[in-house]
């Protein structure tokens, strides 16, 4: 079984996220998604989520391409996650191009093109201007 892992906040879940998860799953048979906890988002990414970790987990678990959701609590956990879950491929959007090449010692690293026209920031802006 080929296992794939990806990481993200997935707040205000939108089709750009689903596009990424669909392509990630297509690279293997089992997709693990590590969702940033509220603390990690705030302390490490200065992101204030609209939906809590539990709500974001519920939404992502409902996506047909996703097999397992785990919490992302630190930047450093990726290496141990890849080992612990025996991951073959790490995938993330190309806005992170090159940032996780250190994982190439342990698994394949794939950066996928983002869906350009949509983002949570854009959604919030558009709603604010309505
Ligand atoms: N994404 C995408 N297209 C968009 C928006 C997001 O392909 N229009 C992808 C991102 O590239 C990422 C995933 O969807 O692979 C989740 O996006 P975010 O929730 O913004 O994740 P981010 O805050 O970048 O967190 O340790 C890694 C971080 O947790 C990644």
Defining traits:
single chain, alpha/beta, five-stranded parallel β-sheet, 5 strands, 35% helix, binds [cytidine-5'-phosphate] glycerylphosphoric acid ester
What can you see in these coordinates?
- With 130 residues, the protein is an alpha/beta fold.
- 35% of the residues lie in helices and 22% in strands.
- It is built from five helices and five strands; from the N terminus they run βαβααβαββα.
- It has helices at 15-25, 38-45, 53-61, 77-84, 120-128, and strands at residues 3-8, 30-36, 68-72, 89-93, 108-112.
- The chain has a five-stranded parallel β-sheet.
- Helix 1 (15-25) links the parallel strand 1 and strand 2 (30-36).
- The longest helix has 11 residues, at 15-25.
- The protein is globular, with a radius of gyration of 14 Å.
- The N and C termini lie far apart (47 Å).
- The model has no long low-confidence stretch (mean pLDDT 96).
- Bound molecules: [cytidine-5'-phosphate] glycerylphosphoric acid ester.
Beta-strand percentage? 15-25%
In this structure, how is the largest beta sheet organized?
Answer: 5 strands, parallel
List how many beta strands DSSP finds. 5
Poorly predicted ranges (pLDDT <50, ≥5 residues)? none
Rg (CA only): 14 Å
Which sequence of SSEs, written as H and E, runs from N to C? EHEHHEHEEH
Shape: globular
**CA distance, first residue to last residue:** 47 Å
Helical run tally: 5
Instruction: Give the overall average pLDDT.
Output: 96
Largest sheet: spatial strand order: 3-2-1-4-5
Bound molecules: [cytidine-5'-phosphate] glycerylphosphoric acid ester
Structural class: alpha/beta
| Residues in helix, % | 25-40%
């Amino acid at each position: 079984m080929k296992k794939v892992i990806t990481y993200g906040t997935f707040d205000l879940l939108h089709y750009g996220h689903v596009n990424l998860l669909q392509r990630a799953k297509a690279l293997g048979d089992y997709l693990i998604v590590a969702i940033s906890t509220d603390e990690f988002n705030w302390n490490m990414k200065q992101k204030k989520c609209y939906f809590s970790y539990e709500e974001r987990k519920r939404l992502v678990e409902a996506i047909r391409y996703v097999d397992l959701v785990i919490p992302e609590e630190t930047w450093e956990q990726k290496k141990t996650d890849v080992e612990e879950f025996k991951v073959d491929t790490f995938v993330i959007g190309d806005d992170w191009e090159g940032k996780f090449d250190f994982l190439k010692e342990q698994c394949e690293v794939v950066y996928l093109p983002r869906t350009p026209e949509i983002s949570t920031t854009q959604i919030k802006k558009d709603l604010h201007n309505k």
